[in-house]
Amino acid sequence: MGNKISELQLSQLGPWEVERSTLHEVGMSWDEIVSRWFSEENVLPPRASDDFPLIGWRRVQTSYPSWALEVLVLGAPDQASPGRWVLVQLHHDKNGWQFAGPASYLPIPVQELRRQWLRLEWSQPNFMMTNGSPPEIAVVLINDAASTWNPSEEDHSHVQGIVLDYKGNRIGSGWYAHGKAAQLPPLAPGQQRVLPALLNTPELDGLVPGRYQIRASLTALGLPTTILASLTVADQQGQQLAPE
Predict the structure, then answer these.
(1) Three-state secondary structure of 86-151
(2) Does the pTM exceed 0.90?
(3) 130 CB-side CA count, 13 A
(4) What is the pLDDT of residues 12-49, one digit of tens each?
(5) Which is nearest to 11 in space by CA: 111, 115, 89?
(6) Residues facing residue 99 across a β-bridge
(7) Per-residue pLDDT tens digits for 159-198
């Protein structure tokens, strides 16, 4: 949404940031929202299913990513769990509107607010691995605040890594998929938590022996490591190539 909207005016619902004012709007029934915006489409449920709210639907976010012509997120208050919201995602591609969902989320502060006073460092500056063997790479999450940091239900512990050559060029697409990682624990002032990194980084599988750089990010909070770390890949005999 850019810098024009303060993070204090936003809430996070699952992976989406939405304007808080949108959540206070008067919504409409599912049938009404479908007939108003998608009257010529036949890919959406014509009536709300059993796990849908009957009323309160509104558009909470619109985006235009590279992988779709348009993406809409519709939301309504969860009638079964007061305080939560049911969201569905719809994306428009060459085959028309495609439907995904629903899922229920609790509004929480956005990443910029949740990660304040947290720092992500490497457990050591240099790592080594043998070609074809899974590396043991870790980061350390540190609470620099004078008070305890308490996670939200969205704050899972998955740390995504990115591999660079020694010229700083990114290797691979950076695409990844992961299951629901364990939730982060509360951190007392000054407390640290060691987290594994690069567990689901396919670029590691085809690395030839040599020297590389790595960076990582705690995905739930959008919190990156402060510096790059070094990764040395050796062959089965322990030999490595000189960096270019």
Answers:
(1) EEEEEEEECCEEEEEEEEEECCECCHHHHCCCEEEEECCCEEEEECCCCCCCEEEEEECCCCCECC
(2) no
(3) 5
(4) 998 899 999 999 999 999 888 877 777 665 556 655 56
(5) 111
(6) 90
(7) 998 899 988 899 876 666 566 789 999 999 999 999 999 8
